[in-house]
Design brief:
Layout (H helix, E strand, L loop, with lengths): L3 H13 L2 H19 L10 H14 L6 H10 L2 H20 L6 E11 L2 E13 H5 L1 H66 L5 H36 L3 H6 L16 H5 L7 H23 L6 E9 L2 E10 L9 H66 L5 H37 L14 H5 L3
Antiparallel strand pairs: 1-2, 2-3, 3-4
Length: 470
């Protein structure tokens, strides 16, 4: 007994491992996932020197119009929100490591006096004990800890994927809103020119009050649209700044590209999107890891619900005038009032909940991919329709209107209406491209197991309605 106890303690200390090593392994796994799926590394800033170096790199990236990949790089290496996520993952990893360790040995010391006719006697008692159940269940606890470490890695990867998707969509919104505001300015300028011309023509008696009012109403509506577009551009820009975690000075330095990336020549094929193995989705893997952990926990509960403690201690007592006593003691709770039925019933219910949650996630996965792909394909078709059909048609109408105006076949108001209509169609094309790139980011996230709200295509006013006409 005396020889085996230190050996058991030493073996337990070796098997449970180091919390720091587990944290580093988990971080390396999250970084690998980021490199493979997001094309960017993860930076965990744990010192002032690392933070200053990353700040310098961010300033360098902001010296030119910020590309979408650079926005992701900043978010994964500089954003305080993402740094918090990494730290919380490290906390979860350390907790899992601690849960696998046996409790520390307990040393008890007692010093007792006895006064009697023969004088004062001294009793000294010493004992060193550990929980024997902790040692016996150490392999099971280590297995539980391994499940928790796996779940921590998967949840951190899922949170990383959510961050990447949100940053991509925020960048798309910011660029599209800025681009839309510029075109809305063109429309408002054309409408204002028409309103001023209508005022002058009424002053000379060539326009009625009704005709002038119509032009003024169009100009007023386009001014309202411009105000909304500029406010949307500011809000979208600030949303991106918040996602990136930029300082006020860096926010001032931020510039964005003039327009969204061009549409791809062809969309992702549905068969290619559906070929992704659903079992590799993060949400499915997280649910399965939780189910495995709950299953192992159920087995432990069935044992510990009856006997939840077994302590063994070596004892050495000394008494005045007597030889020392040596031996051991065992402490065992007796299940007289609590037979463990509540603990077992709760554990079985948690297992059923985890089992059905896993089924739900797995069965919903394919539907979520179909919804995401349908939104992606619809957004691509709509953006392609604007690019190849509507915008060129309105451009041709404007060009023909210029020719007819030069030949004095139409008036200036018809020409201005055609120009407004063309600008409005371009603004709607920008919105369609924005919806496509948002749907593209959503599809990628869904394929990896981070489904987001499906895309809903908005029906806007037609360019002819937006531009007016005569």
């Amino acid at each position: 007994m005396k020889a085996s106890l230190p050996v058991s303690l030493l073996a337990a200390g070796v098997l449970t491992g180091c919390a720091g090593a587990a944290i580093e392994r988990n971080f390396a796994e999250v970084d690998r996932f980021a490199r493979e799926q997001a094309g960017s590394e993860v930076r965990w800033l744990r010192s002032d020197a690392e933070r200053e170096a990353m700040r310098t790199e961010v300033d360098r990236l902001l010296a030119q119009p910020l590309a979408i990949d650079d926005a992701v790089r900043i978010a994964l290496g500089y954003s305080p929100a993402f740094q918090t996520l990494l730290a919380e993952a490290a906390v979860a990893s350390a907790d899992a490591t601690g849960a696998a360790r046996i409790g520390n040995p307990v040393f008890t010391f007692e010093r007792l006096f006895r006064s009697g006719a023969e004088g004062r006697e001294l009793d000294i008692g010493r004992s060193l004990g550990i929980s024997l159940l902790d040692v016996l269940f150490l392999p099971a606890r280590r297995e539980q800890a391994a499940f928790r470490q796996q779940q921590t890695r998967l949840e951190a990867s899922s949170a990383l994927l959510a961050t990447v998707t949100e940053v991509r969509q925020a960048w798309i919104d910011a660029v599209a809103a800025s681009q839309t505001a510029r075109y809305r300015s063109d429309v408002a300028s054309a409408a204002g020119t028409a309103a001023e011309l209508a005022r002058r023509m009424q002053a000379t008696g060539n326009f009625s009050r009704l005709q002038r009012a119509r032009e003024q109403a169009l100009a007023a509506e386009e001014t309202a649209n411009l105000i909304r577009a500029r406010q949307n551009a500011t809000a979208a820009r600030e949303a991106l700044i918040q996602r990136l975690g930029l300082t006020p000075g860096q926010a001032q330095a931020l510039t964005l590209p003039a327009q969204l990336p061009a549409l791809p020549e062809a969309p992702i094929d549905e068969a290619t999107a559906g070929a992704a193995l659903l079992e590799n989705r993060l949400d499915v893997r997280i649910a399965r890891a939780d189910l495995d952990r709950t299953t192992k926990s159920l087995g432990l509960t069935r044992v510990t619900s009856v006997v939840d403690g077994l302590h063994v201690a070596g004892v050495r007592n000394s008494e005045t005038g007597e030889s020392s006593q040596r031996g051991f003691e065992i402490e065992l709770p007796l299940p007289l009032f609590d037979f463990g039925d509540a603990a077992r019933a709760g554990s079985e219910a948690r297992y059923l909940a985890a089992f059905n949650r896993t089924l739900e996630v797995a069965r919903n996965a394919s539907s979520q991919v179909r919804v995401a792909y349908d939104g992606y394909r619809s957004a691509y078709d709509l953006a392609r329709h604007y690019r190849d059909e509507l915008v060129p048609l309105h451009q041709n109408i404007t060009e023909e209107s210029v020719l007819q105006y030069n030949g004095m076949l139409i008036g200036v108001f018809e020409l201005l209406a055609a120009a407004r209509s063309q600008s409005a169609s371009v603004a709607q094309a920008i919105e369609a491209e924005r919806d496509f790139w948002r749907a593209d980011a959503a599809l990628k996230a869904s394929l990896l197991g981070r489904p987001i709200a499906p895309l809903v295509l908005q029906s806007g006013a037609s360019p002819a309605q937006a531009g007016g006409g005569h």
